[in-house]
Each structure stands twice: as structure tokens, then as C-alpha cells.
Design goal:
Length: 535
């Protein structure tokens, strides 16, 4: 009896310690709405992904990757976005090989990097080349898309067996990641598939797909459209309106007998498939998961780009199909970077750029994505091609990394604007702290910078912090009765451990004799300006 009674407090003591330790462990990476922004929270703090996506086959070999990690770290990256293919994870049905996963995690940790994995499984760029051979060869069990009477190497999203096999493998992968990384949080997010959709035709014309297309539109889809009618993407709403806002009928009856109806049909089927795969993974390890898309040209028809992918005009269809996918992201190479960013950053969808242009274009676009659109990550494709530590992107990444805590705070407060200036736009205006802030390409002694980019944060009532190069700024009070405003001081500086360390006091030519806040075109810099009022 004494042993029992004496042991009880000890058991309770250690139970309390265990519970306390569990309570103190940071939650898994997750998305969280904080003020005006949705942010990625890692180990209890906002995390800005300064990343890069590898070429498709780079990470299939640990030996190939070994010399790349220090080069990527030298670029200022904190995250590597890398493919992980189904064929290597499950080479034989029911037999899983996680050696590559474990090796990539070990290499990333050794170079102080995080990872976003791309689950290349049933589809990659519309095709199904990353599925295991045992899936590809069994076309009865895992049927393919039919285009113009020909089977193509695209797994049909209407097949329940394919969905189950993909989901089972993904669930096993996520269970393993939780076991080996659930406390270290090297893996931040998962991308489900890659640029899905039917290439070469507007939709799947297999027997099963034709039967489904001739059947009634699922009531859960039309109920969603009716419940969210006022908030639907304008193009989708216009299409549904034009066909009478029907809540019952076949796909052609509800959406019209056009390529657009085919696209919506494929979006529903891909979305149902991928929401189910995502849900299986989240049940094993609940971290952020997203789907990306190959962007259409303005005049392109479905099939020229993957029909059914989560383009802005069908994202509502994807949302109606389930809520397991956290957000939808663009693979953005188009010239109109700002427009596409705006199309994706809407209706609660946060902006993450998993694949885009690097080099000089990326060095500027990152400021717009993280500043103006309050994005939480940026990742140019083929990042190893510029891993020499000397690129324009490296300079931007290093500067943004130094201001990351302040930037996350200002994102939440809605007090940051980003911009890219050049031949398409030489100036931009926005409102901050009661001022109209006018930003133009920099000029000195009659010479204009050809490009300029950066972001500006309001950090006090009459104080602003900016980073970038090649632009100048003036301030105008919004109220006609307000006092006049002028520049009190401009200081160049750096952020060290989140603390501002002032450097040169910029005056004379460097602030246009006190008339402008200037960022010249030589290199990216961080500067702080304070203003004063007078009669």
C-alpha cells in the first residue's frame, strides 16, 4: 500500500511535467489570419519564405544535391521548394521507400534550410509521368483520359481507384514526415500535384467521363454557387448568369454547351480528387497544403493550358469541392505580374508564389508580392541556375531577410506597399498615415533609372522605412487644411537582429537637396525618412 500511495504523487508529478512540455512545444507550421494579412506561422512566429524551386529532377539524387545546398544558402534562401515523386516513394504497390525524404531533410537541416515538398503523383504539368510504373501499366484499374478517341498519358480524375492509391501513398508520406520532422518543422508546406488539368482537349472524353458529363451537376456545387453568388469570380458569375442561374441540369444545361462548361466539369473532378488526397494527408500530419496552376493566356482556350486547373475563374469550383486545400497559387511567368497577383490574392486566398521568374525580374517582383499583396513567400524556378551568390535576387533576399520581423508586423497592420517601376509604369501613388505617397523612377542630373522596385512601410506617425533601389518618393498631406510637409532627415542603415542601426545621414545630392527621398539605382538599400510639418 505504501508503494502505491508513494508512487501516486510521482506519477502525477511526471504526468504534469509531460503535459507542461507538450503545451510548450510549438504547434506545427500553419496559416493564421493576423490583422490585414494571412501569415505562415512557424515555431510561433510569422515566417516569410525566401525560397527557390529546384529543377524537376535535381532532388531525385542526394549526391547531386549535396554541393547545391551551401550555394543555395549563400543566395539568401531560407527555403527550398523541391519535387518529391510518387514513383520514388512507392516503387512497388504498398512498399514505401522514404530514404530520399530522410536524406533531403538531413541535408536541409545541415544548411539551415526549410523545405516545401511538391507531391508529384497523379499529375505534373497536366501529364502523369511521375506516377509509378505499376500504376501506368494497369490502365483498366487506373484509366486514362481520352482525347479525340485516343488514350493519353493522363490519369483520369474520375477514377476512384486512382484517387485511393494516390491518397494512400500521400497519407503514408505525411505520417512519415510527422514522425521524423514533427518537432523540427523542416517541412513547412506541401504542394499537392502540379499544374493539373487536361492538355490537348477541353475535357476527358472517356466513357466514364462522358457519362458523368451527361449526368446532373452535383447539387453541392450548385448550392455553393447560389450561397456565394455575390462573391463569385466575375467571369464565373457572368457565365452562370448568362445561362439562367440554373441549380439543376446537366453540365451543358447549367453552364452552356461550350469549352467553358468542359473546363468547369474538369475543375470539379480534379478538385474532388485532390481535396480527397489532401484530406488524407492532413489526417496524418496537418500542415498547410496548396494547389498551383499553369496560367492561361488571355485568349487561350481550355486544353491549350491544362483544362480544369485552379485558374482564378474556376477557383470557386475548387472551393465548392472541399476545404482541405488551404489556398491556390499561381505559377507566374507572365509580364503582367501585378494583375495575376491581384487575381489570386482575393476572397481570403493569401498569396504565395511557388514558381516564378528569378534574376532581375524576380529581384523586383518579390517586393510587390510581399509588400503590396502581403504575400508570405516567393520562389523562382530553376533556382540552382543562379546559385552563385551574386545575383540581383540574392541582394533582395538578404535585404528582405534583415527586415522580415518588421515586414510581417507591418503586413498585419496593413501598413506596407510594394511596387515595381519600369517601361510599363514609371510611377505609383498610395495612401499611408494621412499622406499621399508618390513614388517615381529615380532621377539625378537628368538621368532616369530604367527600373526601380521596393517597398515602403509606415513605422511611425511621420516616419517611413523603405527598401529597394531606383526610385524616389515625395509626400503630400491628404487634408487640404493640413500643414505643409518636408523631409527632416534620411538615414541609410541596416537591421541587425530586428534593430535599426543607422549609417550615413543622406543629404545634398543623395536626397535631391532635401526635396526627395531617393533610392539610387546602384544597389538595394534600406533607408528611413522622418518628416516635419510647417506653416
Amino acid at each position: 500500500m505504501r508503494i502505491s500511495f508513494c508512487a501516486l504523487p510521482i506519477v502525477l508529478l511526471f504526468s504534469g511535467v509531460s503535459a507542461s512540455l507538450t503545451a510548450q512545444q510549438p504547434a506545427a507550421p500553419h496559416l493564421e489570419a493576423r490583422g490585414a494579412a494571412t501569415q505562415l506561422i512557424v515555431d510561433g512566429k510569422p515566417f516569410l519564405i525566401l525560397g527557390g524551386e529546384l529543377h524537376n529532377s535535381s532532388s531525385s539524387s542526394l549526391e547531386y544535391m549535396k554541393p547545391l545546398w551551401p550555394k543555395l544558402a549563400a543566395m539568401g534562401l531560407n527555403t527550398v521548394v523541391t519535387p518529391l515523386s510518387w514513383e520514388l516513394v512507392e516503387p512497388k504497390e504498398g512498399v514505401y521507400d522514404f530514404a530520399l525524404v530522410d536524406g533531403l531533410l538531413a541535408q536541409a537541416r545541415a544548411s539551415h534550410q526549410r523545405i516545401v515538398f511538391l507531391w508529384l503523383a497523379s499529375w505534373k504539368n497536366g501529364m502523369s509521368s511521375y506516377a509509378p510504373v505499376w500504376v501506368k501499366q494497369d490502365t483498366r484499374r487506373f484509366p486514362r483520359v481520352v482525347e479525340r478517341n485516343n488514350e493519353v498519358e493522363i490519369l483520369s480524375p474520375t477514377a476512384a481507384a486512382t484517387q485511393e492509391a494516390d491518397a494512400r501513398a500521400f497519407g503514408a508520406l505525411m505520417q512519415h514526415i510527422k514522425q521524423v520532422d514533427g518537432e523540427q518543422h523542416t517541412v513547412l508546406m506541401m504542394q499537392i500535384e502540379n499544374e493539373v488539368g487536361v492538355l490537348g482537349d477541353t475535357r476527358d472524353h472517356s466513357g466514364a467521363a462522358n457519362k458523368a458529363f451527361a449526368s446532373a451537376v452535383p447539387p453541392e456545387l450548385t448550392a455553393y454557387l447560389k450561397a456565394h453568388q455575390s462573391a463569385l469570380y466575375p467571369e464565373l458569375r457572368a457565365l452562370w448568369d448568362a445561362n439562367g442561374n440554373k441549380t439543376a441540369g446537366t453540365w451543358a444545361e447549367v453552364f452552356g454547351d461550350t469549352a467553358r462548361a468542359d473546363e468547369i466539369f474538369m475543375a470539379w473532378n480534379y478538385a474532388r480528387f485532390m481535396q480527397a488526397v489532401t484530406a488524407r494527408g492532413r489526417a496524418a500530419y496537418n500542415i498547410p497544403m496548396y494547389a498551383n496552376t499553369w496560367l492561361m493566356g488571355e485568349d487561350a482556350i481550355p486544353g491549350d493550358y491544362p483544362s480544369g486547373c485552379p485558374e482564378p475563374r474556376v477557383i470557386d469550383i475548387w472551393k465548392a469541392a472541399g476545404q482541405a486545400i488551404d489556398f491556390y497559387a499561381p505559377d507566374l511567368y507572365a509580364e503582367n505580374f501585378e494583375l495575376w497577383s491581384q487575381r489570386f490574392h482575393r476572397d481570403g486566398n493569401p498569396l504565395f508564389m511557388p514558381e516564378t521568374r528569378g534574376g532581375a525580374a524576380g529581384a523586383g517582383n518579390v517586393y510587390y508580392a510581399l509588400g503590396q499583396e502581403a504575400g508570405f513567400g516567393f520562389s523562382p524556378f530553376g533556382i540552382e541556375d543562379e546559385a552563385d551568390g551574386k545575383s540581383d535576387l540574392t541582394a533582395s533576399y538578404n535585404l528582405i531577410a534583415s527586415i522580415a520581423p518588421l515586414l510581417a508586423e507591418r503586413q498585419s497592420a496593413g501598413a506596407v506597399h510594394g511596387f515595381v517601376l519600369g517601361k510599363f509604369r514609371s510611377s505609383v501613388d498610395f495612401v499611408m498615415n494621412g499622406y499621399t505617397v508618390h513614388v517615381t523612377l529615380d532621377e539625378i542630373f537628368g538621368d532616369h533609372a530604367s527600373t526601380g522596385f521596393g517597398l515602403i512601410m509606415a513605422t511611425g506617425p511621420d516616419e517611413f522605412t523603405g527598401v529597394g533601389k531606383g526610385f524616389r518618393v515625395t509626400f503630400e498631406p491628404r487634408s487640404p487644411a493640413a500643414k505643409q510637409v518636408a523631409i527632416a532627415a534620411v538615414d541609410e542603415g541596416t537591421f541587425v537582429d530586428g534593430k535599426w542601426i543607422p549609417g550615413r545621414r543622406l543629404n545634398g545630392d543623395e536626397n535631391d537637396q532635401g526635396k526627395n527621398w531617393r533610392f539610387d539605382s546602384k544597389q538595394v538599400t534600406a533607408e528611413k525618412v522622418t518628416l516635419y510639418r510647417f506653416e
